[in-house]
């Protein structure tokens, strides 16, 4: 009986040590967060910075020790088996504490890595089994085992050598507005070529004149005027089964057709804005469903990081569910969408100007807008960026871009002018990040008579109304908003355009209960009356309920409708 207990304890040790090591390894996306919780920012020592890595290495050694004790020291490892139980439980508690202190918000990124590492571990174990154990078992003489192994090997080789996958349209189309063009983005199930057909004319997804055929991501530019007039388009994808230097074989042409409704401002303009969805796609789609929109604005942080392909395509999936591919979408990148191993591919699948996420856009005959991108929300030398952030030049390029737009004067031809940036431009937070660029951008947007600025990032519903705050002075939250007056080190620039922050999960402007599991996302619908020169903004939750709004810094209760005059008329 005692031997069975010892044997069971050893197996438990191995299983728990494997779990602990793989979980700590999977938590690598939170390693800097662990260091921060331990006080690295106040005491930036080598040990605090590297402690998560050290603990992971120790967990690896514990796992190796458990396996060694089981296979090598069978007779002499009884006491060690029980000692290792205690060690493994300590590491298990450590993992639980790390998850509870913040990693729980990222478990939908962590669990996939855990299972990837588990598969790798299982593959390594299988290889070691066939090298060291298989030759000494009866399996080596089993014909059935040999046939099974040979069949599996041939099947794996066939899949690897020959492309036997079937193609289909995977992610449905989104029509992004960039400058005077639409970028129609969709994906195929396999690497294939893609194009869009409008009134019998084909527009291709090309690379230096060649139709791209080894990609799942398709983004085809078409002139706005062409699609606005046709009001319909068809997306195509076709797998190239074999492509040689002098010939090839094409697969089936798979296509889907969509109607399109261009923005018509004859009786006004209606659009919807949402930000900081952070994977709550269902709640965001529901929130947008209560209004009749002519276009959608995604103001960033649709996902928490771009780690997996599903994160890369989340904005497209969200936008298509909101629009069905039938109305335009304007996209601004959020700071969380700079993080993750696939973040540098984001420009391939969403609205962007080349590899940049700042650009102008027009919609219909009355709408002009600029999309800006301040990048990360700390300065470039912030320790968590490990010397990979170089956004100062990128921000300066956007200041130069706004100067060029001001000089060209194209905005003067439009009755309604918008500015969209995930991080709010007129708001200088308590860290005083990006002050130089925010002040310059504010001045240039003032000169362009921008009617509205739309942002997210703060995870609060904040309203900055021009003329109500003193530029450069510390902001004080009102008691109606905060429960009591509270002065913070943040301030505003000298802005002349209303700025709305649309970034909250919940059911009210100030939810006091934890928001993590809430099934509601709050967005804002904007209705523009060009005849009376007004814009009415209504925040609503995922149940369609209109949110009562107050100005956080001035004693103004807007009720559930906020009306601002237009600057450009």
Structural summary, described in words:
The protein has helices at 2-26, 31-37, 46-71, 78-100, 107-133, 143-161, 224-230, 281-288, 309-312, 314-323, 392-408, 435-447, 479-482; strands at residues 174-178, 181-198, 201-204, 206-207, 210-211, 215-223, 232-243, 248-259, 269-274, 295-298, 328-331, 359-363, 367-372, 416-421, 427-428, 452-455, 463-464, 476-477, 486-487, 491-492, 499-501, 504-505, 521-529, 534-540, 549-550, 557-559, 562-565. Strands 1, 2, 3, 6, 7, 8, 9, 10, 11, 22, 23, 24 and 27 form a 13-stranded mixed β-sheet that branches. Strands 12-13-14-16-21-17 form a 6-stranded mixed β-sheet, with helices on one face. It has a two-stranded antiparallel ribbon with strand order 4-5. It is globular. A hairpin with a 2-residue loop joins strand 1 (174-178) and strand 2. The chain has 13 helices and 27 strands.
Features:
13-stranded mixed beta sheet; six-stranded mixed beta sheet; globular; single chain; 569 residues; alpha+beta; 13 helices
Summarize the structure.
With 569 residues, the protein is α+β, with helices and mostly antiparallel strands. The chain contains 13 helices and 27 strands.
The average pLDDT is 90
**Strand share of the residues?**
15-25%
Main sheet characteristics: 13 strands, mixed
How many DSSP E strands? 27
What Rg is obtained from the alpha carbons, in whole angstroms? 28 Å
What is the 3D shape? globular
Low-confidence segments, given as residue ranges, are none
Report the structural category.
alpha+beta
Produce the secondary structure layout:
Blueprint: H1 2-26, H2 31-37, H3 46-71, H4 78-100, H5 107-133, H6 143-161, E1 174-178, E2 181-198, E3 201-204, E4 206-207, E5 210-211, E6 215-223, H7 224-230, E7 232-243, E8 248-259, E9 269-274, H8 281-288, E10 295-298, H9 309-312, H10 314-323, E11 328-331, E12 359-363, E13 367-372, H11 392-408, E14 416-421, E15 427-428, H12 435-447, E16 452-455, E17 463-464, E18 476-477, H13 479-482, E19 486-487, E20 491-492, E21 499-501, E22 504-505, E23 521-529, E24 534-540, E25 549-550, E26 557-559, E27 562-565
Parallel strand pairs: 1-11, 9-10, 10-11, 13-14, 14-16, 16-21
Antiparallel strand pairs: 1-2, 2-3, 2-6, 2-7, 4-5, 7-8, 9-23, 12-13, 15-20, 17-21, 18-19, 22-23, 23-24, 24-27, 25-26
């Amino acid at each position: 009986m005692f031997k069975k207990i010892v044997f069971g304890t050893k197996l438990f040790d191995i299983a728990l040590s494997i779990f602990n090591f793989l979980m700590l390894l999977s938590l690598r996306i939170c390693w800097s967060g662990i260091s921060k919780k331990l006080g690295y920012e106040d005491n930036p020592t080598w040990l605090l910075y590297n402690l998560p890595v050290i603990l992971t290495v120790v967990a690896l050694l514990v796992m190796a020790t458990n396996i060694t004790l089981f296979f090598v020291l069978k007779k002499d490892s009884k006491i060690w088996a029980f000692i290792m139980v205690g060690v493994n439980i300590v590491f298990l508690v450590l993992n639980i504490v790390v998850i509870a202190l913040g990693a729980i918000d990222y478990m939908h990124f962590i669990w996939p890595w855990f299972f990837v590492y588990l598969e790798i571990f299982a593959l390594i174990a299988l290889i070691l089994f066939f090298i060291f154990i298989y030759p000494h078992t009866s399996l080596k003489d089993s014909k059935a085992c040999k046939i099974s192994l040979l069949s599996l090997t041939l099947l794996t080789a066939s899949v690897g050598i020959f492309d036997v996958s079937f193609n289909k349209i995977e992610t449905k189309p989104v029509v992004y507005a960039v400058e005077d063009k639409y970028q129609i983005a969709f994906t195929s199930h396999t690497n294939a070529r893609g194009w869009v057909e409008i009134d019998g004319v084909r527009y291709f997804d090309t690379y230096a004149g060649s139709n791209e055929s080894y990609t799942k991501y398709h983004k085809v530019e078409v002139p706005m005027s062409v699609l606005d007039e046709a009001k319909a388009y068809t997306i195509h994808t076709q797998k190239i089964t074999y492509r040689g230097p002098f010939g090839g074989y094409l697969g089936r042409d798979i296509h889907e057709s969509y109607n399109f409704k261009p923005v018509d401002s004859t009786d006004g303009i209606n659009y919807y804005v949402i930000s900081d969805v952070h994977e709550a796609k269902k709640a965001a789609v529901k929130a947008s469903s209560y209004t009749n929109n002519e276009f959608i604005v995604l103001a960033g942080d649709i996902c928490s990081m771009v780690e997996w392909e599903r994160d890369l395509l989340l904005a497209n999936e969200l936008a298509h569910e909101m629009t069905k591919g039938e109305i335009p979408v304007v996209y601004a990148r959020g700071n969380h969408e700079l993080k993750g191993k696939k973040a540098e591919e984001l420009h391939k699948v969403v609205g962007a100007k080349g590899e940049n996420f700042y650009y102008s856009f027009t919609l219909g005959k009355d709408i002009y807008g600029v999309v800006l991108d301040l990048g990360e929300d700390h300065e470039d030398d912030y320790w968590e960026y490990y010397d990979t952030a170089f956004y100062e030049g990128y921000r300066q390029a956007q200041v130069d871009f706004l100067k060029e737009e001001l000089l060209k004067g194209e905005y003067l031809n439009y009755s309604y002018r918008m500015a969209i940036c995930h991080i709010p431009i007129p708001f200088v937070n308590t860290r005083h990040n990006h002050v130089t660029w925010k002040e310059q951008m504010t001045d240039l947007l003032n000169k362009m008579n921008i009617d509205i600025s739309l942002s997210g990032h703060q995870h609060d519903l904040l309203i900055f109304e021009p003329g109500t705050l003193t530029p450069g002075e510390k902001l004080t939250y009102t008691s109606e908003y905060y429960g009591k007056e509270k002065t913070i080190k943040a301030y505003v620039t000298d802005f002349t355009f209303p700025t709305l922050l649309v970034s909250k999960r919940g059911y009210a402007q100030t939810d006091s209960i934890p928001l993590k599991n809430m099934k509601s996302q709050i967005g804002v619908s904007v209705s523009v009356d060009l005849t009376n020169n007004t814009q009415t903004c209504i925040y609503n939750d995922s149940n369609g309920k209109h949110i009562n709004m107050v100005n956080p810094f001035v004693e103004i209760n807007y009720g559930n409708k906020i009306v601002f005059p237009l600057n450009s008329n």
